[in-house]
């Protein structure tokens, strides 16, 4: 039969191994979560930049087309910018809380996976 001291030493040794393993597992889970979050954000950032460049060039073309029809090219830029001002104001008034909630939920869900 084992002595109580050796049983306690064995239990302490097993507990040390358990704590070290749990610590390493937590580190690996954190690294995985951060990696997933970072790659998702990078992919979305690349997509957003690409779409932004596309729409910028499209808007320049539309502004030049409108300006050509009105006789002065800068008129087209004024009209396009006024349109985006109105869209931005409407967007802010109607959807800002919903978008904030969606983005927050998305980030939290991604971090907890």
How does this model look, in words?
By secondary structure, the protein is mostly helical. The protein is 95% helix and 0% strand. The chain has 2 helices and no strands. It has helices at 4-70, 73-112. It is rod-shaped and about 100 Å long.
Provide a brief overview of the structure.
The protein has 113 residues and is mainly α. The chain has two helices and no strands.
Helix count? 2
Topology order in helix (H) and strand (E) letters: HH
- What's the helical proportion of residues? over 70%
Q: Which percent range describes the beta-strand content? A: under 5%
Given as residue ranges, the uncertain stretches (5+ residues, pLDDT < 50) are none
Give the tags.
mainly alpha; rod-shaped; 0% strand
Describe the protein's topology.
Blueprint: H1 4-70, H2 73-112
Helix pairs in contact: 1-2
